[in-house]
Each structure stands twice: as C-alpha cells, then as structure tokens.
C-alpha cells in the first residue's frame, strides 16, 4: 500500500468517524432527560372485563385506531397493546375461557386469539365473509367439536362460521343465503336447548326466521313470518326469542314471538301507545338489554320491556336529554344489571352526572344510584361499559368504564373517578408549537436556592457517573436527579428555547397544549364551536397560528385558529374558532357561509399582529380574514403578489390562481370576510391514463436559510435556487399508485416535477422507470429528497435533487462573493427566466417509510438531518450528507475536506441514529420539527398512536455546554491547579533560599 | 470487528424460515379467487425470547407490501398472510433490537402458489425452506467507555496536565544534562536580556 493510499484511507476513516459522531447518539443513562414517550390507544369501542379469579384485574379494549389493549383496572396503564394494520378495523372483541382474547377484524374476515396475560398471538384464522351487515362474534356456551373448550360463532354478512377456540380451525361454515338470495339475517340467538335461531328480513315475506343446526351448521328450516306491514330493515332486536322491529313508517313496533315448535305470533304495537305526543322520528337503539330494548323517539329514550310470553310491550322508563345505556350485564342468578348515565342538569357545564345501575328484570330496583362529577371539559359521555364485583359484605358493587366525547376514558367506582386516560391524543390531526409566556418578574435568580450541599452532592454524583465509578444505586440517584431537574418544566421561556407548548388538534375536535419538558397536558379544550350537535356532525380540519405577538409579547397571548367543517345540514360549510394559547379558552367562533376548500396563510400581519388568511371556497372565491378594514387595506396593497394553487388529485390537475377584484354584491357579513374573485392563471393537467398525482410537497414558508451560495473546494461558488414558490410533484402510473405487487416493472413509473406555483412553469422534470409509489418527499432549501419503491431491484430508494441557479454562474469565485461583487442580494423573481441546474442521485434505502421531514434550526446554519419514520414506527435521523448528489466513488482530497462521503449504493443505517431509541411511536403518522433558540438544536415531536418528543443537534451541540458537562471536574481541576501553584511556589521559595545560603 | 461479533451472537439467535403453502391445500379456507394464496412462515424466536421479555417478542410484526397487510408472530414464531395475490411482494419484519433485511417474495400462479424468496439487502436467494437471518442485533445507545487512565490522559485536559508534568520535571533534568560551559554561555546571554523568573512573577517583583 502506498503511503498516499494509506493517507487517503486514514482520512476516509476519520471522515466516517466524524459522520458517525454526528449521528447524535444517546447514552443509556440519558433516556428521559430531554425526551418523553407516551402511549395511547384511541377511542374505545369495545371493552370486556377480566376481573374473575385471582389474577391481575384488567379490562381489554378495542379502539377506533385498530388497537387491542389490556389495561390495568386499578391504574389504567397499558399491560400490552397490539395495533392491527391500517385497514383492519375491529368488529368485535370477547374473552374465551378466561384465557384468550378473541378479536374479529377486517369486516369479519379475520379472527385472532390473543393470550390474555401477555398479548401473544395464539392463533389466527382467515374467513371468507360475504359483504353484509356488521360482523359479530358470539362465544357459544357449548363445545361443538369436543375439544373441551367452548367454541365461537362468527357471523359476518350472510356467512356463519363455527370456529374452534383452541386452534382457530373452522368447524363448519354455512351460507345463509344459499337457499334464498334475498335473505338478510340480522340477529342470531341460541336457546337454552342449544338451538340456533336466526332472524332477518327477506324481500318477499318480510320477517324470516331460520333454524340452524349447531353441530353441522345446516339450515334446517326457513320460516317466513307474515307481517301485515312493511318493515324498516335498518334495525332488528332479538330479546329472549322475541324479535322487535319498526315498520317502514316508523310508527309501529312489531314484535314476533319465535317459538321453535309453534307458529310465530306477531304483535303490533303503535308507537302512540308507548309515547304520548307527536312522533317526529324514532329509531331502535343498538343496545343489548335483558328483556327490554331502547327506543329513541324524538329526543327522548324509551326503555321498553318485552314480555317474552305474550309479546306485549310496556314502557319502563322515559329518559330525557343526553343519556347513555350500557349493555346489560349478568350479575348473579337471573339478575342483569344495566348502567344508565345521565347528565344531572340539562345544559349545565358542571359535569354532574347520575350513574344508576338497575336490574333489568325488575327495572325499578336500583342496585346502585350515585352521583358522579365527571370532568366537564371532556364533554358528554358516549359509551358506558359495566362491570360488577363482589364486595366484602357479599353485596355487589359496580364499576363503569366511560368513554367521553373527547375520546378519553375513565373508570368510575363508588361515585369516584379512579383513573382517566387522555386517549384522544392517539388521533392527532394537526400540530403547532407556541412559545411560552415571558417571565414577568425575574425572581429566578433568587431561586438558585436549593442549598449548596445538595448542589455539590449532585455534581459529585454526576462526576462519579461520568468517570464510571458510581455504584448502581448512585447511578439511579443521578438519573432521578436529572429527571427531577425542575428547570425543564417551568412555565415560561428559557434562554435556549427548549421549553415550548405543543398545541395539537385531535379528531374529536379537542385542542391540547403539551409542555415540551415532560409532555404533561397544560390545558385542554373541547372546542365549543366545533362540538357536534345532535343533528350536526363536525369534523376538525386544521390548526393555524393566528396571532403570534412579538411587540406586545408581555401582555398579549398567542392565538390559534381551528378550522372545521360541519358535515350535516349545510353542505360542509366551514367553522372557525379562535383559541387563546396560554389560557386555553375559546375567544370566539364563527360559522362560515361557505365551505372551505383551502386555507392559505399569507405572510402579512396587521397592526395587532393578526395574520391574514385566505379561505378559498368551492367557487374559488377568496375570502380574507380577519374581516377588518385594516386587513382589507393591507391585502389590497399586496394583492398583486398573492397567488395560490389547487391540487385536484382525482382529475390529475394543478391549477394556479391569482386574485382579481372584490365581489361587490355580497352583503358584508362577518361570516364571509372580504370576498374576492380569482382567476386561473395556469394549469397543469397530467395525462390520466399514464400519470396519477402521488404526492405534492411544498417548502415550509418559515424556513431559515443561512446562505444562498455553496462554496466548493475548488473555490467556485454554486448558487442555490431558493424560490419559495417552488413545489415538488410526483406522479406515478395509475397501476403503480396502490400497493407493491400490483404492478409489474413495465407498467410502473414515476415522474418527478419541480413547478413554479406563480407562473406554472415546470422547472425540471425527471422520470424514473419501473418504480412505484407511495412517494414520500421532503423539500427544504434547494433540495428535495423523495422515497419510492424500485420494482426492478425490489428495494426502496431515496433520490435527491439539488437545484442550483445558473443565472448567477457569471459571478463565480469566493473573492467576489466576499467583496460583495455579486448579485446574491438581488431579489429572486418567479418572472425572471430561470435557468436551473439540477444535480441528482439515487440511493437504496432499506425500509418502507411512513413519514418524512427535516430538522429545522433557528438560522439554518447547522447541518440538516432528514427524519424518516420507518415501517417499524421508529424515527431515524439521516444525515443529509448521505444523500448528497455530489458523492463520488473516490472523492478527491478537497472534496473530502468539504465533507463528501465516498459513494455507496445504499444509505447506511446506524442503530444509534434512531431518535426514538428503544421506543416505538406506534402508528406513526407525522413528525413536527421546530427550531430551538439555540442554533444547534432542533425540537422533534412525532405523533401517531403514541407521542414522542426529543431534541436533536444535527451537527452536535457546538454552541452550549452539554447537559452532562462536568462542572465539578472543572472545579476540581482549578482547585488542583491552585494547590499545585502554591506548592511549587513554596518549593521554589525554599530552593531559592537554600541557593542563597550557598 | 464489532459487526463480526454481533454476527456471532446472532448466528445462535434467529432463523426465519418461511414455508409457503397453497391456500386451497388448507381444507379450511378455500380461496374465493384462484389467484389468492396463503403465505406462511416462521420466525424462530428462541434466541430473541431468551434476550427480551415475552411482551416484546409478542409485538414482532410482519408487514406485507409496506403496510397492505400486517400480522403478528405466534409464540412459536409462525405467521401467515392469506389472500395474497400471485406476483411479487415485499415482506418486512419489525422487531425492536434486530435488523432484518426485507424479503422479496415471488408467488407463482403457475406453480400453485410456490414461492421464491430473496433477501434484498444481501441479494441472497433463500433456499426452498426459506431461511432468513436478521443481519444484526441493534443497540440503540452509545456505550460509555469504561473508566481508563489512558482515556483520561488522552483527553485535552489530560494532555495539558501531561505537558505540564513534562515541563516541570523533565525540562530541569534536561537542563542538567546540558554541558555546564554551554549553560554558562546561555546564562550569560540571558543576563543580557533579563526575563522575569517564575518566582519573581509570583511575588510581584519585576
């Protein structure tokens, strides 16, 4: 090996080392010092209790986020949690023989059994259901195949399956539509003699009952039931062999007594007999009550008891207002409890509810009647699950699991809330961060408080820990000390900008503020303006900063704007709500008269620092908010420079618009804003048979760019093309738009575009044959990194495009740049004819990607990390230098100095560069990065079902001492030096003296 | 070196064998369409189970086609996907602490759902009892170097101390070894250009 080659390899190793170091690793004892991780499950829709036996008491829940979780009944913490695939919504959940949790998911097509203590998958079985009504699961009290275990019955669509609970094998299956095509079986019941009866509708004869043999699944008898009236087929209830349905006019309740050996007896009861007053609407509620059913008439709920021998109906109770009934629970002997939760006072915000548990058999004896005060800020109660336990005095006590309007979950026992989980946080749809308030009176100095001995002791322990001399107990003490450091949890701004409020908007229309220090909820607000009324469902859409005070930061609070849509009634009109970020209160709300298609925040603020927003409706009119005269004047000033574009993915079209003149015939209502006409300026239509828009990515309008130029090792200068109005658009062939495996390499292809959104000019276009989506991309400064799947090599790839401005090539050279003899300060205009040079390169990347973003720092000086949410729900920090298009196989000496890494075909993945380290952000959906005030550091918040927050320094922390900097070591060194000086001084003094004596 | 070490650890650890069977061979679940097959496999978890708690191995997921289907492994390591169309697919194993290569899986329609699988990272074809190894075990934390005197001395502060020790104790020794006449000459020169001694500096004498 020649000396030169050796030198090279040494330098290469050094560079690799430096890259390695930059990949921001974490020591194990730093876990939790500045990061936090929270686990959520989502809105609970099914729950079963496991409180029998001596084992740990738990409740198993299934949620809207496709999670199955086992919760500790005493504390509400998660024992285990399994999150199914995105498309696998859970239909039913039950317990079998106290050992297994059985879940039915994916529209009744997959049954899985989970081991109760640890959530391990025991078996799974795929069924082939036919489409039909909601799938249901029934644990039979009998053993069909003699394996000493009760078996399961899965009913989905028209198919009925008997499944062994031991191994998931299908014992038999039966198509109930085999004999009659028009048969729709709604409910099944199993009589005590072991006879299975199905009840449903058919087109020709109305009500039909079907007898099914449980041994072999044969349909033994189909009995049409003659009913004089046509029936409403939406809902059918089966109670103790009595079928209950409404007629098609919704005015009569039809009950049919099904006896296996006799004819079916039909009783018709007009609603007028049950309910005095005019019936506007009526509906049978989907509840499971013993011997009774619930009927909603107008806005009252009637509990109607059914006599199983005569079919006579009698109203037990009329419940008014918002009331929730649980399914009935078998308590003891023939007693069945039902929980009724009702707001104590109508329209009050006190949060007082009355919880009653009644025995369904007699209905008038209360097992429990207590008043509970629930958190009023969680809204109304949506669901109740009841559980009974035996008290020491042999009487029965009840617990109730309550699901609130904001998707949070509480356990009630003896009139108290035992625990509450904030599970709405599992469905975050938008995020923003806000600065904390300024510290008004700076008494922080006086709080250098905690006494010196403690401080010294802490530092002594830290020193020992850094020198690895500490014992495990001492290490634990250090860890506790670090976690306790109250500094990070204070409620005002810090010098480094690490303390912030993360504002999130959840699917339930709740806005929460989380503190970055420890992730605690500072305030939460179920936005009143967005709360769904009984007839008007609303969907929250976006969270936007409305007012960020800088000039009056001490006395004014930031305000966020929540944009929502009302779904019912008026065709999707918009709703706006303004929320104070420090107080957590709604300032005002506004129902718009138009649907909001797009919101464009403008970079203009008025005198009160309210940001101007453009709301585009379906007619492409632009509505300006805030609707003040001042904002109008401001907007008119900037009107010529306002452009926006609308992406229509269905039609494969992107259209750019500009603002024309004001609409004058509008009545000046506040809910309209200032209305302007717009006109299309340009449009790009992608050929629909060969290109489908896969992703459109724009730049963050607030990103900080430190320099417009890039100085090469040859002392040449490249100028970055930094036009903020550039978007990246990726289209794929229609076949390649779906899943991997759908298209062959020949059918697939991706086209990447860079488009100027002001002029519609395509700046660059590149095709990648044989690759397919989904495409994830990140656009920052002058580069785009996008991730896709290559069908030829069958690997994921990441491509990079770096865009350089060729117009400025004339003024090359660092000297000119330094002397200011360049045009770098001239404004970038979309109208100037651009001539861009795009450098690109592709690299293999191992994983599928769920989300992608880039770190952002205060001034953009620090290097960049691309944050990749991988298929394993981890967050990987990838140095941008790995996806540099200028990497070559053997970079020259100068290029290496510049930080160019030798070319490799794949991007290396270091386990230490996972920001989430041992955690997973289950169901990762998005990542938010915010600059800290400290230039080196970027704050990262990843959300999915779980939340994870950390901070990262892409180029290491170069502008402050790290947390583990040992002040005590510094002190000791200084003290040692002083002692050394004194000692040497004395020594030299003596020596001098002895010399003088000579 | 570190990689080689972890390989050794892994070699005892995990073997994933995928056994692919034609769904209709399974009497229980005949496919509705002829091109829908079952893909079954096994992750041999004995090694992992010894290292991480059971609650972690139970959360090992297998992902088909970047999220089209997701399934979990059973305690014995078996997993299966059903209703997989003929064609080429991608399997990814998600196991915290282990790095698995994605696997390209070709399900053949002509050969009744017979399967060929290639680990795409290593480009190795997995033999008919498809064997897939995790490429490495992953450690998410940087390891603290154990306390060592050499390490301390190599730190900037250690180097400074070392230099001072050399200056204080070795330089006088060097002076002694210099020829006395030479020394005298140098001292002569020094006298011509008087510089304050360390001692006088301390006492504030000029």
TrEMBL record, chain A:
Annotated signal peptide: 1-25
A GO cellular component annotated for this chain's UniProt record is:
endoplasmic reticulum membrane
Q: Which InterPro entries match?
A: Beta-prop_EMC1_1st (IPR058545), EMC1 (IPR026895), EMC1_C (IPR011678), Quinoprotein_ADH-like_sf (IPR011047), WD40/YVTN_repeat-like_dom_sf (IPR015943)
Q: Which SUPFAM superfamilies match?
A: Quinoprotein alcohol dehydrogenase-like
**Cellular location(s):** Endoplasmic reticulum membrane
The EMC1 first beta-propeller domain, residue ranges: 25-423
Name the residues that span the membrane. Answer: 965-988
Q: Does the keyword Kinase apply?
A: no
**What is a single Pfam family found in this protein's UniProt entry?**
Beta-prop_EMC1_N
User: Start and end of every ER membrane protein complex subunit 1 C-terminal domain?
Assistant: 781-997
| Alphabetic keyword roster | Endoplasmic reticulum, Glycoprotein, Membrane, Signal, Transmembrane, Transmembrane helix
Classify the protein's membrane topology as the record does: Single-pass type I membrane protein
- SUBUNIT field: Component of the ER membrane protein complex (EMC).
Family (UniProt): Belongs to the EMC1 family.
Q: Please report the name of this protein according to its UniProt entry.
A: ER membrane protein complex subunit 1
The organism named in the record is: Riccia sorocarpa
UniProtKB/TrEMBL annotation, chain B:
Per the record, the major location class is membrane
Q: What's in the keyword line of the UniProt record? A: Membrane, Signal, Transmembrane, Transmembrane helix
- Membrane-spanning regions, if any? 157-175
Write out the annotated subcellular location. Membrane
Lipid bilayer topology:
Single-pass membrane protein
Q: What are the ER membrane protein complex subunit 7 beta-sandwich domain coordinates in residue numbering? A: 53-160
PANTHER family, per this entry? Answer: ER MEMBRANE PROTEIN COMPLEX SUBUNIT 7 (PTHR13605)
- This protein's name: ER membrane protein complex subunit 7 beta-sandwich domain-containing protein
